[in-house]
Structure formats: C-alpha cells, structure tokens
C-alpha cells in the first residue's frame, strides 16, 4: 500500500496594487487572531445599535452560539439612513445594470431612503 500526500492548495496572491487598496489588511487578520471577541466587538461597533449588545458571544448552551447578546439593530437604518445623515445622500448606493445592455438605474442614498420610506408606508 502506498501513502498518498495531499497536495498543497493552489493560491493566487493578489497584486501589490490590489493589496494596497484592500479593506482587509494583514493587521486586520492579526487583530482577529490575537483576540477574536475584541475583534468582533470592534467590527460590530462600526454599526449603529438601537440597543448596545452586552456580550459579544454567549456559548453557554453549545452547540447554540448567540452573538451580540442583548443588542438590537435596525438594518434599514444601518444600510441607508446613517449614510444620508453623514452627508453622503448624493453618493451612489445602488448601481443596477440589466439586460438588454444599456438597461440601467442608479440610486443615491437619498433616493434609496425615499424609496424605502415609500415601501414602509
């Protein structure tokens, strides 16, 4: 019987130009590895919470994990309203391109906010 070895996965590292503009840097990965709960708390606090979470992770009833315990979010607010409030209402929120070619639509955050408000009513 011969032993077979698993081959190393093929990887395609990004170009230096691409890596320079990436949102996730090596530091981000190091921070996540060093203290995962602090890392996720920091990421979660980039959002606007209606009610702040009290615990990042509750694993007391394994295998059920509860993330951001006690926290309450308004997803629509985080996706749209806070960008308008921050003065980015004129920036493109959605650029849609369909078929046939040339069939497209652009919505700014302010326009999207108006459409979401219409749907909510």
Question: Would you kindly provide a written description of the structure presented here, covering whatever features stand out?
Answer:
This protein folds into two domains: 16-72, no CATH class; 75-120, no CATH class. The protein is 40% helix and 24% strand. The protein is built from five helices and six strands. Helix 2 packs across helix 3 (36-44) and helix 4 runs antiparallel to helix 5. It is extended, with a radius of gyration of 21 Å.
Number of spatially distinct domains: 2
Major sheet: arrangement of strands: 1-4
Nearest-angstrom radius of gyration? 21 Å
Largest sheet: 2 strands, antiparallel
What level of helicity do the residues show?
A: 40-55%
Class by SSE composition: alpha+beta
Mean pLDDT across residues: 93
- Can you write the helix and strand succession as a string? HHHEEEEHEEH
List the uncertain runs.
none
Helix count equals 5
Number of E-state strands: 6
